[in-house]
Amino acid sequence: MGIYDEHLDRNAANYQPLTPLTFLSRAALIHPDRTAIVHGSLERSYRDFYARSRRLASALSRRGIGRGETVAVMLSNTPAMLEAHHGVPMAGAVLLSINTRLDAEIIAFQLDHAEAKVVIVDLEFSEVMAEALGKAKAAPLVVDYDDPDFPADAPAKKGEPIGSLEYEALLAEGDPDFDWQMPQNEWDAISLNYTSGTTGNPKGVVYHHRGAALMGYANIVAAGMTGHPVYLWTLPMFHCNGWCFPWTLAVQAGTHVCLRWVRARAMYDAIADHGVTHLCGAPIVMATLINAEENDKRPFTQTVTFNTAAAPPPQAVLAGMRDAGFEVTHLYGLTETYGPAVVNAWKAEWNELDRPGQAARKARQGVRYPALEDLAVMDGRKMEKVPADGETIGEVMFRGNIVMRGYLKNPEASAEAFRGGWFHSGDLGVMHEDGYIELKDRAKDIIISGGENISSIEVENALYLHPAVQTAAVVAKPDDRWGETPLAFVELKPGRAASEEELIAHCRAKLARFKCPKEIRFAEVPKTSTGKIQKYVLRKMIDD
Amino acid sequence: MGIYDEHLDRNAANYQPLTPLTFLSRAALIHPDRTAIVHGSLERSYRDFYARSRRLASALSRRGIGRGETVAVMLSNTPAMLEAHHGVPMAGAVLLSINTRLDAEIIAFQLDHAEAKVVIVDLEFSEVMAEALGKAKAAPLVVDYDDPDFPADAPAKKGEPIGSLEYEALLAEGDPDFDWQMPQNEWDAISLNYTSGTTGNPKGVVYHHRGAALMGYANIVAAGMTGHPVYLWTLPMFHCNGWCFPWTLAVQAGTHVCLRWVRARAMYDAIADHGVTHLCGAPIVMATLINAEENDKRPFTQTVTFNTAAAPPPQAVLAGMRDAGFEVTHLYGLTETYGPAVVNAWKAEWNELDRPGQAARKARQGVRYPALEDLAVMDGRKMEKVPADGETIGEVMFRGNIVMRGYLKNPEASAEAFRGGWFHSGDLGVMHEDGYIELKDRAKDIIISGGENISSIEVENALYLHPAVQTAAVVAKPDDRWGETPLAFVELKPGRAASEEELIAHCRAKLARFKCPKEIRFAEVPKTSTGKIQKYVLRKMIDD
């Protein structure tokens, strides 16, 4: 025992649980009149945002919902979704955000597995939720949310109410001055997000207050946010809790601009009318911005930072975004890492490179996020770091405070993911000499042909360099002679043409011959709601 | 036990101690070639800064210094001081930064009380350190630091070496690739700072890794730092570890510009030549900038943020700073709160106020820092918050993760400071209706005259509004009839004149009569090295 080990213990004055909930209370105290939320014609101040979140927490508490109980929501990027991110944990409860594209069966599984006590559902999804509730054993309190700004030209319709009460009626039960309590422990769960579950049942990823709070700071540093940022909701909030930006914005009393549907006109309107400074999304959102009709575009003068993930931004998209006035930051992470945990930290000297050189740098996933303690590319069997040579493929692994607590009620999967004291991402990549990682594939997406590893991403990147290619996805096709060979699914750009022979010849000019696709199929490439290509669907299509 | 309480435990993959040490390793990984430190003609990259910090940690470890042992430094704002902030805790040890203005007796007390095992001392201070070591029971390893950029026109001289070896020789013993270990626990001590101890022995304030890491993020948010900030060292790093900026800058791979002596020409040169974006200091530093000779001023185009604390910035100083191109942020805190824990968060609408109105807003200490969980003005006996009426005086109290662990080897003082689960600052203030606090006095500085409380700060503010007043300090003078009356010590501006009668008349135009000083004394006002007025010295002068 040293002198610093005695009489210097924790107490209420010098130790408080880390939680993002204190961000909102602080923003409401300092900036009660600042606009916290814009949603169509609705503008809500921080005073009201905080009061409504407390009403929600109070109403849940009065209905007996408390610490460690699950409150599910199936909501679009609306004010209610933002309130749920604060109000649910202020009641001590855990927020389960359900992907709005899921079918009834998976929704029912999630409600049962998480033992949901409440579900708040947007009327757009009431039909599928009713079906899910029919299949589920859980019998949560069902609350309808009738979006006050459901646009007249919406691509979907509202369904009928299915709940016991409407969201505003629930809020009316609560006290706007509710004396919410800090979490008992910063390790307490704050939210639950199910992975897409390409094989087997979805796994429930548990986040804690500590990690969510640290992401609040880390996002600010990584995204270069200062002053009062204005954030446009193009990334679904059900996706890794919107990469924790629902909490982050409160640190600087920034403004959330909600967006129910990601359409070009609405995005440009928000940027021009509300002074948006930041937005996030998959490359598809960038394509929507770039390829917008001229009528839908609006000029803007501020710098707008676009944080993208899910896939490296293709060179043409990067050039298009720059010409359109956006700065693109490439992020990478998984549901298990609270969203982004790796950032392509851009260096000023890279601006001297030519455009392909810049695109090659931008395609790297990068370095650990400010709040991540360690990032490595490792030989998974030996649990040793691979050489930083840009060539040796290993598994990308994470260690730190923005890694999930584990999978809910699934200790086997948690132990498997955490073996050796690192979170195993399942993604394969290399470590470059300069310490930046670059993904080469999902472990299951690597193609082994004649004993040689082929990175499907490398083949896709070659295909993307062809001017007619809109989307490319390469999977392994079983082959009697080679074991596997690369099979490419390709979507062409509207109005452009290219033959199978032409694309294969194009690849041969770029890649070693054994890496080139033996076959090209022109077809719509299936994607998740967040823009990730669903290779497991493509694999099922191989024999079609 | 709920479902979230099972099988979701901490492990090395999902839990790491919070520490600012990972900030430097990250900066060195991502930006090895960026300039971390500028000191005169010396420029040091992040690669070298990290390697030298590791050398220091390695050398200390090889000499048997480890967890929970104290390494003292008596250094100016030099590269060695920055290296010590990282290298000492990388060895698991605790950094004691000794105020360079202290006398031998207090230094000896600190070395003994902290059981210092090593002391690194700048040659400027070798004489007083030698004297202190003569008085001390502790027999630390003494290391001399010979500043490579000790200017020829320095206002002080180097003394003779007194140590066993020179700092560079110590570093040469260490391994630049030293595999430093994370702290065992984020609650482990990282540094020790003795309060100035106006009465009795100084108290040793213990900081932990957790708080230092959180300050890293909080400073960024509060100071509006983005990109790669350039920070000028006008605040002594021995003062609350330079408000934790030695660690903060690494988060964004910013540049430290060292400054051995705070002189106008050197500050303007740094701002113009190195693109300084941020600096911190007491109002005296602002006065030095504003009142510089025209020859010493340099034009600059960037926005420079000046964070000030110790005393509310007077109106004339604020106007002068604005005219000179600086943005002033007013911060408040104590050694016990890692430096700033309260920020005068400025609101855009306040820019519409006239200059006195703006100065009145700027004089408020403000709201809790981003990483502070709670701030209150309380009735210390009842431990109840005073009404937010801007009038009721109470004691300012803090609660959160940037409050010290306690006072070293002084459980009584710690218990007293933490009674009721709040850190008692000893400062008196009011809570305004809008949630901003404003200090009215130190508890011991309040003047009680005829049973009425008089805030010495209020009287000082009135005096500062007189154009001839450079510095004003008001203390209580014992009075047979009234108990106490306000006595003002005043320094006039060079070349300006004002009589005692004139200043008292000036006060009567601004204040209730009972608050006005009964007597004015024109004298040099004693200040600490950080610019704080030493009222205890003034009190001793009352009977002179």
UniProtKB/TrEMBL annotation, chains A, B:
Keywords assigned by UniProt, alphabetized: Fatty acid metabolism, Ligase, Lipid metabolism
InterPro entries registered for this protein in UniProt: AMP-bd_C, AMP-bd_C_sf, AMP-binding_CS, AMP-dep_synth/lig_dom, ANL_N_sf
Any single Pfam family the record assigns to this protein: AMP-binding
Domain of life: Bacteria
Residues annotated as domain AMP-dependent synthetase/ligase: 26-408
Keyword Acetylation: no
Domain AMP-binding enzyme C-terminal: 458-532
Coiled coil residues, start to end: none
Family in the record: Belongs to the ATP-dependent AMP-binding enzyme family.
Classification via NCBIfam families: PRK08162.1
Name used for this protein in its record: Acyl-CoA synthetase
Entry keyword ATP-binding: no
Listed transmembrane segments: none
